[in-house]
Amino acid sequence: MKKVLYLMRHGETRFNKLHKIQGASDSPLTETGIQQAKDAKNYFARHNIVFDYGYASTQERASDTLEVVTNAPYQRLKGLKEMDFGDFEAQATYLQPKGPDAFENFYVSFGGESALTVRQRMLRTLTDIAQNDHHQQILVVSHNGACFYFLQQIWQESFGKQPLELPHCAIIKLIFDGQEFQVVKIIDPTK
């Protein structure tokens, strides 16, 4: 049986606004971030999308976003967390290497995660979520890097060009057929 899963990036945070690196570290949603989450809530309402369950990373920016979007019961999962940037956490973003290839193993020597680790845990976690027979319409709130690496695992040429960065509160509509995920579309609810 096919299942619909909506994977969403959290709203803007204080660290986003200050151009600080946040992976394992956390910062609160800004007023803009809260409004972005409200825009996502309105998008779902306009399209009569009601969630029977939700999942968020254990980081507050994700669970706070989910709580603005829906009042469905939800669970926080470590497998949905953002990439750990090690010693680069809370540093200025200009210190980061440029381009996704540079992220593959760069942070490991600084106490962080590899891109492969993030890809594998996101795919495993989202597959487990999608295979849960108790939920049919699911909202999952995670992070830009974590979503990027998940998409990298499932992306097919027929989807077009994979985006490097998702806008805050971007929604990735996915269909899970019991074996594989298919990207239906990526939505920016703030537009």
Describe this protein's structure.
By secondary structure, this protein is α/β, with parallel strands linked by helices. It has a single domain, classed as Rossmann fold (3-Layer(aba) Sandwich), CATH 3.40.50. Helices cover 30% and strands 18% of the residues. The chain is built from five helices and six strands; from the N terminus they run E-H-H-E-H-E-H-E-H-E-E. The protein has helices at residues 14-18, 31-46, 60-69, 115-130, 144-154; strands spanning 3-9, 53-57, 74-77, 137-142, 171-176, 181-187. The protein is globular, with a radius of gyration of 16 Å. This is Phosphoglycerate mutase.
Spell out the key features of this protein:
His_PPase_superfam, 191 residues, six-stranded mixed beta sheet, PG/BPGM_mutase_AS, alpha/beta, Phosphoglycerate mutase, 5 helices, Rossmann fold
